[in-house]
Amino acid sequence: EAGVVQSPRYKIIEKKQPVAFWCNPISGHNTLYWYRQNLGQGPELLIRYENEEAVDDSQLPKDRFSAERLKGVDSTLKIQPAELGDSAVYLCASSSGTGDHQETQYFGPGTRLLVL
Amino acid sequence: DQQVKQNSPSLSVQEGRISILNCDYTNSMFDYFLWYKKYPAEGPTFLISISSIKDKNEDGRFTVFLNKSAKHLSLHIVPSQPGDSAVYFCAAICLQAGGTSYGKLTFGQGTILTVHP
Fold this sequence. Notes:
The complex is a heterodimer of chains A (about 120) and B (about 120).
Chain A: E1 5-7, E2 10-13, E3 19-24, E4 31-37, E5 44-50, E6 53-56, E7 65-68, E8 75-79, E9 88-95, E10 106-107, E11 111-115
Parallel strand pairs in A: 2-11
Antiparallel strand pairs in A: 1-3, 3-8, 4-5, 4-9, 5-6, 7-8, 9-10, 9-11
Chain B: E1 4-5, E2 10-14, E3 19-25, E4 32-38, E5 45-51, E6 56-59, E7 62-67, E8 72-77, E9 86-93, E10 106-107, E11 111-116
Parallel strand pairs in B: 2-11
Antiparallel strand pairs in B: 1-3, 3-8, 4-5, 4-9, 6-7, 7-8, 9-10, 9-11
């Protein structure tokens, strides 16, 4: 069974440029998550989708970040414009259930973003 | 507001000995706890979990202990192997509907485990 797929693995951009990350979850997983992990810290949730609905985006900086999961499968996270402080690893995760069964999340390898 | 804390940034252990990684939490609404392992340039990998109705869960060389009254959990690895060297993250979630913590997995800062041959 294929795991969570993310691309690109690495991205270097100049500040004020846009950037987008793509995630394909494990087949059949209804719940998809985007996390940001800063150096020396644990992952922090940005947004959670159940199918195509964003059910928790309270931590997403909506002035510059946006996300979509149009068909309830793969998802895109966008930053426009990027700032120096956005340099981090962006992780995508998925889980098989909704409601009470989303406790075990499976992570992709992440996209390491460097903003210069 | 760090709701899940791993106060030891690093731990060094000899091969064959026991590794004990600790985690404390402050939110009493958390009712499910997980440990993830992370190698460089990879995403976190699920290792073991425990529900708040239990105080121990064992899977091979890995055992997680939960002390709800102290809001403390620990991961024991015995015997430790060099391949266990990685960053270990403790995470917690509230599975009961209602409240701001519902459904949100909160991670600690991680502990770097090094197992020496």
